[in-house]
Write a structure and sequence with these properties.
Blueprint: H1 2-11, H2 25-28, E1 36-41, H3 48-56, E2 59-68, H4 85-99, E3 103-108, E4 114-119
Parallel strand pairs: 1-2
Antiparallel strand pairs: 2-4, 3-4
Helix pairs in contact: 3-4
């Protein structure tokens, strides 16, 4: 997808301000020494809880984390997936975010679920 992404960046009036980093966010982000206004989370579902806890510290107050696939094709409410590791992790992510007083949350039930998280 890198070539596709770079073509879009090249068309942007902000192309000189865009930096693409490819790799495991849990390893790449801490080494950047940056804070973010927005983080889009769409990674390995089993690692969603870890991504959330790790990446939230790099999100500025008032910033947004947008997490994709948080309804996980309806599996999060289907008992048949109670032992599926990916479903368990997405459920844990959803429960963690919902209970976290550091953030405000809205889940949008479009496609596979989109959760918008605003850091207070």
């Amino acid at each position: 997808m890198e070539d596709f992404i770079l073509k879009g960046f090249d068309r942007s009036p902000y192309r000189d301000r865009i930096r693409l980093h490819i790799g495991d966010a849990l390893k790449v982000v801490p080494g950047l020494g940056l804070e973010f206004d927005m983080i889009f989370l769409d990674g390995e579902k089993r690692e969603y809880p870890e991504y959330y806890e790790s990446l939230l510290q790099y999100l500025r107050p008032g910033g947004y984390m947008i997490a994709d696939n948080t309804l996980w094709d309806g599996h999060v409410v289907d008992k048949e997936y109670d032992s599926d590791p990916q479903t368990i992790a997405v459920r844990k992510f959803n429960d963690t975010v919902r209970a976290d007083e550091r953030v405000e949350v809205a889940m949008i039930p479009i496609r596979d679920g989109l959760t918008i998280i605003r850091k207070k």
